[in-house]
Each structure stands twice: as C-alpha cells, then as structure tokens.
Amino acid sequence: MSDNTQRIEQFRAEVADMKLRDPATGLDRLLVKLGVVGMVAGPCFGVAAWFISHSTRNPLQQRDAIVVGLLGLTFAVVGAALFVKGAMAGFLRFWMARLCYEQQVQADRIAGSLAAANGQDGRRDRHAVRQVRPG
Amino acid sequence: MTGDRYEPDQGCDAPPAETPVVELRGVRAAYGTIEVLHGVDLALRTGEVLAVLGPNGAGKTTMLEVVAGLHPLSGGDVFVAGRRVNGAAASDLARTGLCLIPEGRGVFPNLTVRENLRMASHGRRSTADIEGAAYARFPRLGERRRQLAGTMSGGEQQMLALARGLATDPAVLVLDELSMGLAPLVVEELYAQVSSLARTGISVLVVEQFARVVLGVADRAAIMLHGCVVDVGTPHEIESKLSSAYLGG
User: Fold this and answer.
1) pTM (2 decimals)?
2) How far is CA B76 from CA B19, B29, B62, B67, B90, in A?
C-alpha cells in the first residue's frame, strides 16, 4: 500500500481544492437563458428601430435607428445560436450514447453470427472428415 | 469550507481514526417521485476492497452513481476524502481520481483497444506509459491492440474497461457488476487484478450480485436490500448472512 501513499495524499489535496459547482447554475443553462433573452431582445430592438426611424425626418437619427436595428439582428442571431447549441448539447449527448450502444449491439450480433457460422463449419468439417475416413 | 468537512466522532482516548476515502451518510436518492435509496450509510477506507452485495433492484447501481456524481441526492451527504461533495460534477470527481467503471462494458465499441486507452489519457500520463501498463497487466489486450473493442469477447471488453479506468491513475475505483455476463474463469481473473490493485493502495468499492468470487477478495462486505445497507462486516460474517438476506428468511 505504501507505494501509493503519495497518490492518496494528492487525491485528498485535489478533492480539498475542488471547486463545487451548483448544477443549477451550470454554464449550459446560463447560455440557454442568454440565448432566449437575445432572441426576445433582437426583435424588440428591430421594432424600436422601426419606430425611431419613422418618428423623425432627421437622417442622423434614422442612421442611429439603422444601428439599433442591426444590433437587434445581431442579438437575435447570436441568441438563436446559443439557444440551439445549449438545447442540442443535451440531445447530442444522448444521441452519442445511443449510437455507441447500437453499434455495440450490432457488433455483438455480427460476432454472434460469425461464431455460430464457425461452429457450423466446424461441425460440417468434422462430418466431412468422418465421411472420407476409411472404414 | 470548514462546514463541508466531516469530523469523525472520536473519544478522548480513542486513536485518531483515518477519514474514510468515501463515506455516505443517510443518502437518499430518487427517480422522479420514486425513492430508491432510503438513507444509505457506508464508509470505504483507504486501500480496502469493500463489496456491496444485494439482489436486483436493491439500489446498488444508483448508490454508485451517487458516489460518482452521476445521480443527484435527494437527502443525506456524500464525503470524499473528508470533504462533503454533494452536487459535485462527475467530471470534477473523475479528474481528482474517483473512477467509475459502469455496469456493462462501458467501452467504445467502434474504437480499437489502443484508441479506447487513448481516450482515457488526460494529463498525468503519456499514451505510451498507459498502453505499456495496460498490456503488462492484461497481455490479451496487447495482442488485440488494433482490434475494434466491440468485436472482442465480454471478458476482454471488461479488461479494457478496467485498463482504461486504471489509465486515469485512480485513487478510488468504483466497480459496478464486474462479473456481469462473464464466464467464471474470466471473473476470477478480473477479481485477481482487483485484489492486486487494492494491494497498491487503491480503494475499491465494488457492487456485485454474485457473491462467491468478490467475497474472496474483499476486506469488508455489506448487504444492501430495498435501498438500505442492512449489514456490514467481514466477508465471512456477510457470507453466512447472505442467503437469509436474499431469501428474506
């Protein structure tokens, strides 16, 4: 046991230093929430920009409205990307696990069939040997 | 941080007891509204093999998932190396050296043996070092290093799972039903490896349905029934109580 004492001490030290994260405040969830906020805020900025540009004849203010509109578009696109990424992450994890499982089942099935076929061949070979063996 | 520490009860004259490397205190866990662990108390000491035995549906796998941070607690506390780790991410626990080898094989069937081992090489050890150690411990894996893991026998896949776990340089090894679907000789071979690992100081928490082989290598054993640990003792003591526990006699 003595040769691993150092590892155990290291383990204790690492556990002591480990940062405990509350799963409820995970980064994934935060990003999904930010994404939703972005998707809501984007169109709001767009509508606001439309009202700003139509409430004035001053070209400078209208250009400001264009900037606000573009910001809204950016928020909406980035928000949608964050939302899709966050929402897909969980789905893809399960998808990968399922893919691994199905490949394992498929490999088992092929290995089983090969083993069965080899068994039959073996029996057939033994039978053939018995047939040609001189009486 | 002090509040997170587990301080074992000690009398004035008692020798200082070593903090268990993993300890569960009144652990409760549920799937939705159905509670499956009803206050589990268990302690794994440094460098020991602790076998948890029990019939199907006793909650053994759920308990291991709780230890590994894969299943949330609904009550109680989990201490690892004396620190309360309720809510710790499984990845963080794994990084420190708590390694779960799950029920079934847990290997990537579409990757070769070598690639599976490489998947476990993060940080501390080089790939060559990991492969060398794995092939030295399990020569059969060395012979099949270029073979797809999914096409190997169940025993070889379990060896690969164990080798991959060891590649992470674990301090605590948590094994779930190592013997599942394997021939008795293979199971004995695997448990011989577990026993030799424990002699190097790795603490092993192993859950099994089939008691015979695991009791041969365990330092202590526990019986789990209906989501509770009902008995803990030496393998000899537990062996004598097993049939009545399983059959409810």
Assistant:
1) 0.69
2) 18, 9, 14, 12, 18
